[in-house]
Design goal:
By secondary structure, this protein is α/β, with parallel strands linked by helices. The protein has helices at about 5-20, 25-30, 35-40, 65-75, 85-95, 105-110, 185-195, 200, 215, 220-230, 245-255, 265-285, 295-300, 305-320, and strands spanning about 135, 140-150, 160-165, 170-180, 205-210, 230-235, 340. It has 3 domains: about 5-55, no CATH class; about 80-120, no CATH class; about 135-290, Nucleotidyltransferase, domain 5 (2-Layer Sandwich), CATH 3.30.420.10.
């Protein structure tokens, strides 16, 4: 739909182009305008505004009267129909030998009366729950853990890998391979990691994030967290992205060269393989999110010194041969804090 000033301007531009020797077809094409539309706009002495919005349209012969529309609303709000959709109401009325309107008409009338929503005692759907957000500015302040299944010796048999990492440093602070998933084993698992990291002497708050698996919600496990002074944190139900650090770690583990995709023969073999992986990951693996220092170096506070030394080497090389550098040096810093499920900016 084109406004009157736009039409008048388009006609004036085409006429100006024609007076300068341009062909009508070419002039109209430049304005993405068909010749037929231009001819229609200039058929009368003055260019008129679009008349379509002002055209009166006859009322449909089958339109419901106000009384019939009110009858539909009243019927839908009767006690036996308050929680029923229009399709059910129409079918039930047909069984009783009555017909008021079609299902689509019911929906249209209810929409006009702002009643296309639960009308009965049931609660309206809750707003989408936001992910739990936590921030860590040093090691042993925010941990994440989960359980993954490792293939066993036969198809359909599994060993269960309990794996826990520090979100700030990405260090694996706890790992165990068990033959089942229970709250008791989870309690034993967290207590071992707690004492291994000497958290009793630090007396700083620790948040432990996990998904909603049964071991994570077990009463024995939650009681153990309370005894150790650890604050539990949960992902939203059926949202694996809320525990992204653990999920990413499991992918790294299972795509590590040498992972026995055909299964571990014994639980001892699984434990030995996981132990070797943890040692490699913590002390040898240069983590891309840590500017390629190892998780152990970040966890122990050595990362800044190592990155500063790398920067000195690059600066010396640049001073010796500056023509090889056309821009600034690469970034050798690490973020001061790491956030689990950072809040998304709201576009206003």
């Amino acid at each position: 739909m084109t406004s009157l000033p736009d039409r008048q301007q388009a006609v004036a531009l085409v006429q100006q182009a024609q007076s300068s020797g341009a062909r009508l077809v070419k002039a109209c094409a430049l304005l993405h305008l068909s010749v037929r539309t231009y001819q229609r706009w200039t058929a009368e002495k003055a260019v008129k505004a679009d008349q379509r919005p002002m055209v009166s349209r006859p009322t449909p012969a089958n339109k419901l009267s106000d009384e019939e529309r009110q009858a539909v609303v009243s019927l839908c709000n009767q006690p036996q129909y308050r929680s029923c959709p229009p399709a059910f109401i129409v079918a039930d009325q047909l069984d009783e030998g009555r017909y008021l309107a079609s299902e689509s008409t019911f929906y249209r009338v209810l929409r006009d009366y702002d009643q296309v929503h639960p009308r009965g005692r049931q609660k309206a759907p809750e707003r989408k729950r936001q992910a739990t957000t936590h921030k860590a500015s040093e090691a042993n302040r925010l941990w994440s853990w989960d359980i993954s299944w490792l293939p066993g010796p036969a198809r359909g048999t599994w060993f269960y890998l309990y794996l826990m990492l520090d979100v700030y440093s990405r260090k694996i602070v706890g790992h165990e391979v068990y033959d089942s998933e229970t709250g008791e084993l989870a309690s034993e698992f967290i207590e071992k990691a707690y004492w291994r990291e000497h958290l009793a002497s630090r007396q700083k708050p620790l948040v432990l994030h996990s998904d909603n698996g049964s071991p994570m919600k077990a009463a024995t496990f939650l009681e153990k967290l309370y005894d150790l002074g650890i604050t539990p944190s949960k992902s939203r139900p059926r949202v694996s992205n809320d525990n992204a650090y653990s999920e990413s770690l499991f992918k790294t583990l299972k795509f590590r060269p040498g992972f026995p995709v055909n299964g571990f023969r014994t639980i001892e073999e699984a434990r030995d393989w996981v132990l070797a992986f943890v040692r490699w990951y913590n002390t040898e693996h240069r983590h891309s999110a840590l500017n390629y220092v190892t998780p152990q170096q970040r966890h122990d506070g050595e990362a800044d010194q190592i990155l500063a030394q790398r920067k000195q080497v690059i600066e010396a090389a640049k001073a010796e041969n500056p023509r090889r550098w056309s821009g600034d040096l690469r970034n050798f810093s690490l973020p001061e804090s790491v956030t689990l499920n950072p809040e998304k900016a709201v576009n206003c």
